Amino acid sequence: MGKSNLTRPSEFILLGLSSRPEDQKPLFAVFLPIYLITVIGNVLIILAIHSDTRLQTPMYFFLSILSFVDICYVTVIIPKMLVNLLSETKAISYGECLTQMYFFIAFGNTDSYLLAAMAIDRYVAICYPFHYITIMNHRRCVLLLILSFCIPHLHSLLHILLTNQLIFCSSNVIHHFFCDDQPVLKLSCSSHFVKEITVMTEGLAVIMTPFSCIIISYLRILITVLKIPSAAGKRKAFSTCGSHLTVVTLFYGSISYVYFQPLSNYTVKDRIATIIYTILTPMLNPFIYSLRNKDMKQGLTKLMHWVKCQ
């Protein structure tokens, strides 16, 4: 592109993880199986939960929604990435780029709100076991679900509207494998002040709300569990949280590394770190929840047995 300013470039070029031609097919061979494993694994989790009456609880209700969102999350990114790996142009239209960014931000934040809802569920189950059914009733679960979708989508819409106001110049090459907010922002030659203020205020509030819920919930859980006299009782209480804590650590650890730093410091290392929460975490979630959860193992075994009998 020329040096003249363009309010809306016709397309962007996604540089991907590597610009070397010899790396494209090996990368395709790596990420296609990852995508298929992610989709199949999360579909199995959803089917197992909905086919087993023992798994009809709020915790597994939120887990099934999380699996659905994870499928959407990777589908927003990986198919286009796979197409670009086999394409010479690696182009994405301006409209496609903003659409991809919108759903990436929306589903990513929905993931964090669902993780917060699951943390609240564990808090109620461990700290108020005799009132669990009353507190985590159907109405409250639906309310948490609605908030988990509405807040992230409104947050994402605001970011896309602000991005659409930017003026782009000099280059249309995005140094990333999808239209992430920071790499696109680096291409703009207009002022980022409004966008950055929004990120530091509204954006920080949206991100910190579920994270704070998770931290507070687990602090209360820790205090309650430490009061349990028997070691076996403590292990049993902590075992119900192990899978969730593992997923939370993976998700928030990689996000913190990528986004809590100045825009000018965004490098190729951040592209690698982004793979963890955009691609690897959704793939690992079914394994984490099934391998460390006896009820899920039984549910998956029952599902496999039913499939074999058909």
Automatic annotation (TrEMBL):
InterPro entries: GPCR_Rhodpsn, GPCR_Rhodpsn_7TM, Olfact_rcpt
Transmembrane segments: 27-49, 61-82, 102-120, 141-162, 204-226, 238-260, 272-291
Domain G-protein coupled receptors family 1 profile: 41-289
Alphabetic keyword roster: Cell membrane, G-protein coupled receptor, Membrane, Olfaction, Receptor, Sensory transduction, Transducer, Transmembrane, Transmembrane helix
Protein's cellular compartments: Cell membrane; Membrane
Similarity comment: family membership: Belongs to the G-protein coupled receptor 1 family.
Job description of the protein: Putative odorant or sperm cell receptor.
UniProt topology in membrane: Multi-pass membrane protein
Record-linked Pfam families: 7tm_4
Predominant localisation class: membrane
Protein name: Olfactory receptor
Chain coiled-coil ranges: none
